[in-house]
């Protein structure tokens, strides 16, 4: 087990530096364990003039001008008077660790820094990252100082750019900047394992084809070694072992293993059976490395206008979920995350759309365990046609962001859908070109899952031909139109694209917790819990109508939880106190259940019974 070890000084877990004149609040001292969590109190300062790099803040060791922040935490949440701050902000800490094994590597792994980041260690630039929600790893071996103080500085910039993903059209949720997720120090031997690629395919009966591609990174001299792999079930019984020679040239090499497995349990929402792949690297010289990866035997596909999971028809009962919590921004506590998904499971859902970005790694682990199917998306939220059709944007922000999302989550059986974006102008040729290119790119990286985007263009859309199924966002009876237009719209879309499955990826109405109106009707739009119930009930009735069962594969309510949102200028006008909160949740920001929760729970329960 990897364990963090703090060396104590005079009974404390860290050394306070203030008395010495240094600006840092603590020195963290680490032992020889392979992984250390850098969470805790860091030094912090805003940089509204964008002058920090010029002034050398990445080398600054003095206290003047710096305050404190808990890491991880969105800086907008840590400093409410800067809730609307868009720009650069600096974080720093100091640590000490022993020298690595000869030739070993020291890595920094970031789970999420928004929106973009630069990193320095001991005054040296060690890397930067352009995406807010995917994780990244930096090799800092050459910059780290063994047995001495190491000054780590992270600059986060949440200024939204004209030509990026997301771009300046993005106003869909609060721009929570900073180190939103954990940072880890990792020690690796000179030759070490990277994440394997695990794929499963049904071969008929109880037979599954398991394929494993193992990457090995060697940073030392060329040598030889061996790979040992084994598959274990949840009771830790070994179901398969294999061993192969592994040439260890400098750089990254791959080794493939294949096996037809019998008598294994398929992963599904009803039976989320998980297995473990253990890989051991045994070089002829130097330290060994090992990695354990959970996976499931699972296959998703379309057949005509239906979804099939493990060869059986699949209907999805779903909800969208934003990773936001009051006082924490996008740094949702682990226990709150677990409670969210356990309650979503109790709601009767078998599917969650992660809107509109890659969420914390623990989310994917939880959904593997609980049996919740996932849609994972990059934040191309209402991105402009000019941005999406810009080749430089595609090369810098589009393709790399899709690639990171897929590479970091493709071993999770819960993930069945990759999405290339949400509510952009997919009725225009320039955006249809982006969808074609992005869909082809995703399929090259992962041909085992479905690819789509969420459209608000409905019958006007010209981009559906590229994707595996049609996903529709609709707000009839709230922003426009009337309740009874949902069914005819679905029929019209099916008539125009008769060979495509259809999923409603967003629909809903806002409701203020505790605001009641028993006289609400389909024209009220009054932010009452009663109106929300009326709208959701009407929409679900039309989507679940037996006459649409042949082409409707599911529905995904917007949204599980209320959340902070900078722009709420839509009709109907929000009531006082809701100007910056999207209140379409079935629960409030603090997870108090609204009237609609129990109503949807009953509808989904009945739908699951057929």
Describe the protein's architecture and organization.
With 610 residues, the chain is of the alpha+beta class. The protein has 3 domains: 15-188, Jelly Rolls, CATH 2.60.120.260; 191-286 and 288-295, Immunoglobulin-like (Sandwich); 322-473, Alpha-Beta Barrel (TIM Barrel), CATH 3.20.20. It contains 9 helices and 35 strands. The strands form 8 sheets. Strands 1, 2, 4, 5, 6, 9, 10 and 12 form an 8-stranded mixed sheet that branches. It has an 8-stranded parallel beta barrel with strand order 26-27-28-29-30-31-32-33, surrounded by 6 helices. A hairpin with a 2-residue loop joins β9 and β10 (124-129). α5 packs parallel to α6 (429-445). It is globular, with a radius of gyration of 25 Å. The two termini are 45 Å apart. Residues 1-22 have low confidence and may be disordered.
CATH-defined superfamily of the largest domain: Galactose-binding domain-like
Approximate helicity band:
10-25%
Overall domain count = 3
**Overall mean pLDDT score?**
93
Indicate the proportion of strand residues: 25-35%
> What is the 3D shape?
globular
Oligomerization: single chain
Low-confidence stretches: 1-22
What is the alpha-carbon Rg in Å? 25 Å
The third-level CATH topology of the largest domain is Jelly Rolls
The number of helical runs is 9
CATH architecture of the largest domain: Sandwich
Structural class label: alpha+beta
| Total number of beta strands | 35
Report the CATH C-level class of the largest domain: Mainly Beta
Largest sheet entry: 8 strands, mixed
Present the secondary structure layout.
Layout: E1 15-16, E2 26-29, E3 35-37, E4 40-47, E5 67-71, H1 75-78, E6 88-96, E7 105-110, E8 113-114, E9 116-121, E10 124-129, E11 136-139, E12 150-157, E13 178-179, E14 183-188, E15 191-193, E16 197-204, E17 207-218, E18 223-232, E19 238-248, E20 251-262, E21 275-283, E22 289-295, E23 300-303, E24 306-309, E25 312-314, E26 316-321, H2 334-346, E27 351-354, H3 361-370, E28 373-377, H4 385-388, H5 391-409, E29 415-422, H6 429-445, E30 450-455, E31 470-473, H7 486-496, E32 502-506, H8 529-543, E33 552-557, E34 563-564, E35 581-582, H9 595-608
Parallel strand pairs: 2-6, 26-27, 26-33, 27-28, 28-29, 29-30, 30-31, 31-32, 32-33
Antiparallel strand pairs: 1-2, 3-14, 4-5, 4-6, 6-12, 7-11, 7-14, 8-13, 9-10, 9-12, 15-17, 16-17, 17-20, 18-19, 18-21, 21-22, 23-24, 24-25, 34-35
Helix pairs in contact: 2-3, 5-6, 8-9
